[in-house]
Amino acid sequence: MSLFSKIFILISLLMLLNIIELASTEQKYSLETRYIEVPLDHFATYTSPKFFKLRYLINSKYHVRGGPVFVYTGNNGDISIFAQNTGFMFDIAPVFNALLVFIEHRYYGQSLPFGNASFSTPENLRHLTSTQALADYAYVIDYLTRSFYENVMTHDTHPIVAFGGSYGGMLSAWLRMKYPYLVVGAISSSAPMFYFPGMTNCDLFYDKVTQVFEKFGHDQCVKTIKLGWDVIINLSKTKLGMDFISTTWKLCGRLKGAEDIETLLNWLSKVYVNMALANYHYPTDFYTPLPAYPVKAFCDKLTTSYFNDTKGLIEHFSHALEIYTNYTGKRVCNNINSTYDDYTEFAYEYQQCTELIQPKCSTDADMFITKPWDFEKYAMECYKKFGVRTLPPDWGRIAYGGKNLRYYSNMVFSNGIMDPYSCGGVTGNMSATVWAFNISDAPQHIDLRNSDVVDNNYVLGARSFHINAIKQWLNMA
Amino acid sequence: MSLFSKIFILISLLMLLNIIELASTEQKYSLETRYIEVPLDHFATYTSPKFFKLRYLINSKYHVRGGPVFVYTGNNGDISIFAQNTGFMFDIAPVFNALLVFIEHRYYGQSLPFGNASFSTPENLRHLTSTQALADYAYVIDYLTRSFYENVMTHDTHPIVAFGGSYGGMLSAWLRMKYPYLVVGAISSSAPMFYFPGMTNCDLFYDKVTQVFEKFGHDQCVKTIKLGWDVIINLSKTKLGMDFISTTWKLCGRLKGAEDIETLLNWLSKVYVNMALANYHYPTDFYTPLPAYPVKAFCDKLTTSYFNDTKGLIEHFSHALEIYTNYTGKRVCNNINSTYDDYTEFAYEYQQCTELIQPKCSTDADMFITKPWDFEKYAMECYKKFGVRTLPPDWGRIAYGGKNLRYYSNMVFSNGIMDPYSCGGVTGNMSATVWAFNISDAPQHIDLRNSDVVDNNYVLGARSFHINAIKQWLNMA
Q1: Are A36 and A54 in contact (CB under 8 A)?
Q2: Which residues form the signal peptide (chains A, B) (predicted)?
Q3: Which of B2, B42, B43, B179 is the best mutation test for A, with the most CBs of A within 10 A?
Q4: Are strands A51-59 and A32-39 parallel, antiparallel or unpaired?
Q5: What are the respective helix, strand and coil percentages of chain B, to the nearest 5?
Q6: Per-residue pLDDT tens for A113-157?
Q7: This prediction's pTM
Q8: Residue B100 and residue B80: Cα distance in Å, rounded?
Q9: Which residue of B has its CA nearest to A127?
Q10: B185 to chain A: which residues are within 8 Å by CB?
Q11: At what angle do helices B130-149 and B167-178 cross, to 10 degrees?
Q12: Chain A residue nearest residue B130, CA to CA
């Protein structure tokens, strides 16, 4: 049985047993769900071309005929989650009389080209690439313009503005760059546009995560996290120690050896990273339900000095980790093989193994276990895991222009300065119409979230910047 | 045996027997031949990605370090033929200290992904699409910039200007549109940018061909050509008649029935079209060796009135056709299954069946047999011939923006007003930096040919326009 089949069966089983908690995003915004048949491969010819159902969501509540279309270019996940977490588009829709459209990225959510078998073989995964996804968006927008308006939409009649956060932010910018006739401008939030091999130093990401813990946690937090790695590794040398961790941390399976420990350490890294990514100033339900400032909440549970009490440290970590793993108190056990609880992580890791190669390394200076960046090793692990070769590491740069964004126009790149991915973001203006806006203290794409009474002036400033940019693009300024 | 295999064996056999004359283009310009391994599929992931050898030609005679790179985006044919017929680039290279590069289009010339088997199955032909070809060009240019200059080339250091004629002109413009960071501007000559379904009326093409024969032939020529169709159809009703045509026109095979007659009529149409396309004011060797103004030369052989002498008409046509079929006097017989004498036509018909769908119909007003445009029928014939389905007819428009070229920049579209494809060309300015230049009386992409003492002021004007545009793009103006 292939690794794919095993993973598939495992996930199916866990979902069936309700052990994996399904995302239970609050439905703040009402959206109509639609589907459209799109070609699996836009760039090749076939005897029998395969089409599949792509999902998109529409809200026309604020739309007035002649108003623009705001399109969210879906990223790695269920589009409804992104729609519910992109309140900014709903907040400003009435100002612009805009139609809102959220298009799902192929191989995520309900847009699975081969249904549940989409992830079962390398052949079925073949067409999970950004270029194909961009063509999907162009295809859907073109269809919409013809069906909704009974004519071909242009900038002049029904201009389209693209929005996106994180990988979705890259896609919104790339859509503007590759289909400028279709999209008048792009609001690209927290998009690691320059996070490709040879373009961003590998140590910057974990360094930024560490900065988040230093800034939002207390003095001892980073020190305790660093200590934690050694404690885990030492305890794991005996069966007793592994059992102790397994029980205390409520792992779904017991730790049995070196491979499990490696998985545990990687899982822990990801939890830290995700807390930094979702370190919003109010509770959110994006990756998983989290309190306000999860990094602070996590660190607040690690206040004692544990230098002579390794088991005490593991116990305290257990409570601290529940901030991330079980904030709702409903989780039965922690599955260290997944941090997202569905296919999403599998699909995105696949993309990071093939196209979105973001070199990461940790050094003595950060709070992670020291690990160099080794492309050959990375590619080999990807091959073992997914059975595919990474695309030539230069392709992202060749396809999307690398750092040469000054040759494009009408894009805003916003970055939360406390977003770890801002290390690969566009943080300076590139041309007279390609702008950067940096949001002090903020995590990723907070500017795309709905307005909130506790929003600070930095966030309000970013949103105001976006509104003015859009007005310029729509000739309303 | 599949149709593919049959065609392959037939062509191989004919080449072996030297019945098909190989292109014997005069080598005016010296070029170094190079090869580079490019991915067969730039937009998908593979367990073992396939690469193949793409050919490109380089001339560095006029190049001074720091000078720009002029790239010809190869179209449907052997790149060396296009290189030898694009003297304009050689003529202006010294003015700009430019490096000249001619990149071959995949599936043409020597750039065959599966060698001689490239055309043997629909699977092998799968990746013959314009989007893949554009990615090849970006890939080669990126490689060149890194190897030739040991750094990443940008507009600021070593700007790249794209050139192309006809389909190659579409590619040069699309390269600028899709990779503007890579290419500072495009000289797109005689490119039928708007020749897609729903964008250009189907009757304009044959109408333009007819205009060429009316303008360059004499009064009776079009009338005689029209009469010719009826004479052929009537004669073909008997075996005797078919034999007479077969012998008189030196066909390689004897006409045997309705299907052969259909092929003959299509072949004759293509001969007329190609003469109009290559109706230059001096002898050329582009499609095939031709005299100056082949349309005039052809018509000059059809001066008698044949209304009561059908056999005489066929005989006179025989002499007239030799202008196209046997100008060098070396041809043994005429193969009506091919007008190009190699794989080129097969590959390009495939592209016209899948992606480059250019609706053509003839009416009473033109000199061709009346034939409506019927997409369903066209698609069905393509399926019978190549075993593939045409891409949705909207894809060309969605991918490349249809008529919305005003949202792009730095392109010159030149058209010979007497080029039949000018009916689908960009003949008016689209924006402040997307210009059209119309060349009176001229056939296709004469502006890209080398300067000649007999060039008229229209052609000289077009070349001067190009030079000034390039100077502006390079900040030399």
Answers
A1: yes
A2: 1-25
A3: B43
A4: antiparallel
A5: 45, 10, 45
A6: 999 899 999 999 999 999 999 999 999 998 888 776 655 555 567
A7: 0.90
A8: 13
A9: B44
A10: none
A11: 70
A12: A43
